[in-house]
Write a structure and sequence with these properties.
Layout: H1 2-8, H2 15-29, H3 38-42, H4 49-69, H5 80-101, H6 108-119, H7 126-131, H8 141-161, H9 168-171
Helix pairs in contact: 2-4, 2-5, 2-6, 4-5, 4-8, 5-8
């Protein structure tokens, strides 16, 4: 995305491009929320919750870090507050979806919500700002509170429950 933006423009990309880049990075890392052996994921001599939490925090670092690295160039993806807020919120939403839908489908909720928020941005009332938190300005308090709630809720849910188990028919291949 950065190469495309740098090749086609001399200025920084718009808000929508930044939000969709963070969404793309989040969707790419969603598959890492589940392991190849579900039985191994459920058993261990050491607790999984701290490892899952650390994994999610590392994912936030990658999703936010890559766009923030572009700030060193004239075509920087930013502002930083927007990138960090959206990375934390979208990964939190993904982590909330993983125990319910499984790692393979956990990206559905962030994709649907973000596309709706970028197509129909609302800045008027507080409810509109909450529902379209991804596309709000970086200093927007309701958007930040929504992203923080999703991030904390997702971290707790994923750390405790992990990814949803699949039916045998889905894992036979």
């Amino acid at each position: 995305m950065w190469v495309l933006a740098a090749a086609t423009s001399d200025s920084a990309p718009g808000l929508t491009m930044v939000v969709l880049t963070v969404l793309l990075l989040t969707a790419a890392l969603t598959a890492t929320l589940g392991g190849p052996d579900e039985e191994l994921d459920r058993t261990a001599a050491l607790p999984w919750a701290p490892r899952r939490a650390a994994h999610l925090l590392a994912a936030v670092t990658v999703v936010a870090g890559l766009p923030l690295l572009t700030q060193l160039t004239p075509t920087g993806f930013g502002p930083a507050a927007l990138v960090i807020r959206d990375a934390a919120g979208l990964l939190g939403l993904t982590a909330l979806s993983a125990p319910l839908l499984g790692a393979g489908r956990a990206w559905f909720a962030p994709l649907g919500w973000t596309l709706a928020a970028t197509i129909y941005p609302a800045a008027g009332n507080v409810l509109g700002q909450i529902l379209t938190w991804q596309s709000q300005a970086p200093g927007n308090v309701p958007a930040a509170a929504t992203a923080a709630t999703l991030a904390c809720g997702g971290l707790i849910a994923y750390a405790i429950a992990g990814s949803a188990r699949h039916a045998r028919a889905e894992t036979a291949f």
